[in-house]
Structure formats: C-alpha cells, structure tokens
Design a protein that fits this description.
The complex is a heterodimer of chains A (115) and B (111).
Chain A (H helix, E strand, L loop, with lengths): L4 E3 L2 E4 L5 E6 L6 E7 L5 E8 L2 E4 L8 E4 L6 E5 L8 E8 L9 E2 L3 E5 L1
Parallel strand pairs in A: 2-11
Antiparallel strand pairs in A: 1-3, 3-8, 4-5, 4-9, 5-6, 7-8, 9-10, 9-11
Chain B lengths: L2 E3 L4 E5 L4 E3 L2 E3 L5 E7 L5 E7 L5 E3 L5 E5 L4 E6 L8 E8 L5 E2 L3 E6 L1
Classes of the chains: A mainly beta (115), B mainly beta (111).
Chain lengths: 115, 111
C-alpha cells in the first residue's frame, strides 16, 4: 500500500516565478492537509481539503497561495510570485476520516528553494 | 487556543541510556496528543497517539508516553537509546482538523 506521495521532492524557483507542489494521498484517503516547515521550526498548518472542497484554510497566507483537491488527480498547492521567504519544506498529510483521532500520514515533503 | 511546548531543542544521550523528551500542552478542551519522528530529509512518522483511552501509550520502536492531565504533560520515553533513534521528534496536539506542532527536539545518540 503506497504511502502519501509528493512531487517534486526538491523544487528551485527564482523570485517571481510560480511553484506547484503535488500530493497524492494514501489509497482510500479523501482528506488532505498541507503544512509548512520553516528552517529550525516545527510544522505549521496551512490548509485542509476534501475532494473538491476547502474545509479549513485558516493557516494559508492571504495572498499568492492557493490549494485545490480536484475530483480526479492529486492535491495541488500553488504559490504564485514566490519570494525568498517562501523557501521551506512543504508537507502533505492524508487521513481516512476527519475525526481528531484519525491519524494523519505524512508524505516525504517538497523542499522549495527560492533564489 | 491550543499549543504545545517542547522543552529542550537538543537532547544528547549515550547509547543504552534512558531517553526523555518533554512535551507540555495547553488546551481548553480534552486534547488528543501525538508524537511524530522525522529522520533527515524525510516526512514525519507517527510514533504514538493519545486519544483518551489508556493514559500510558505504547508506540513503535520501544517508545512510550504518559498523559498526565494534572501536569498538562505528554513526555516521550524510551528505556534504552539506540543509535538509530537519532532524529527530530515533534509533539502535536489537536481536537479539530489541524495538528498543532511543537518546535521539535533533536535527539543525538552517542556510542
């Protein structure tokens, strides 16, 4: 049973470019979460999605960031006009249900570097 | 609002020694608590979780944690450290859809 998959694992962008990060949840999981880890910090929640719906985006920056989880295909985290401060590791997690006790399984992350 | 505090950003132990990683939480409602481990350049792996059943929770790789409501703590322990335990450990709390993480504790194990 494949785990959570993320690609690319490493992404380099120049300031002003767009970054697209992809996440395929575990088989049978319909709940996806995105977290950001800045250097030497813990993970910070960004957004929680179910198929075709954004459930909680309270951790998303108000500008330049967007996320989607279409009916078909992976979840996408999109960062427009990247700045150096966006350099971080972005982790996706998935769960089978939405209860607080449902385990979130994490992918290997995408490490974004903005030059 | 919920929060987690991990005391000690770095902990060093000798191989075979007791591992103790500290986590204190703040929550206005009964919390669910988790410990995750992160190896270099990898994602997070669940070690164990507390979901209001037994207060002493056993996890993978010989780790366990005890939920102490009176102390608002959920410290992670392992009786005997192994070299392969060297990693970063994160405590997290939730009672909603999002996990609230601490800043992590990096564990070093010396031979």
């Amino acid at each position: 049973n494949a785990g959570v998959m993320q690609n690319p694992r490493h992404l380099v962008r120049r300031r002003g470019q767009e970054a697209r990060l992809r996440c395929s949840p575990m088989k049978g999981h319909s709940h996806v979460y995105w977290y950001r880890q800045l250097p030497e910090e813990g993970l910070k929640f960004m957004v929680y999605l179910q198929k075709e719906n954004i459930i909680d985006e309270s951790g998303m920056p108000k500008e330049r960031f967007s996320a989607e989880f279409p009916k078909e295909g992976p979840s996408i985290l999109r960062i427009q006009q990247v700045v150096r401060g966006d350099s971080a590791a972005y982790f996706c997690a998935s769960s089978a249900g939405q209860r607080s006790t449902d385990t979130q399984y994490f992918g290997p992350g995408t490490r974004l570097t903005v030059l | 609002a919920q929060s987690v505090t991990q005391l000690g950003s770095h902990v060093s132990v000798s191989e075979g020694a007791l591992v103790l990683l500290r986590c204190n939480y703040s929550s206005s409602v009964p919390p669910y608590l988790f410990w995750y481990v992160q190896y270099p350049n990898q994602g997070l792996q669940l070690l164990l979780k507390y979901t209001s059943a037994a207060t002493l929770v056993k996890g993978i790789n010989g780790f366990e944690a005890e939920f102490k409501k009176s102390e608002t703590s959920f410290h992670l322990t392992k009786p005997s450290a192994h070299m392969s335990d060297a990693a970063e450990y994160f405590c997290a709390v939730t009672n909603t859809d999002k996990l609230i993480f601490g800043t992590g504790t990096r564990l070093q194990v010396f031979p």
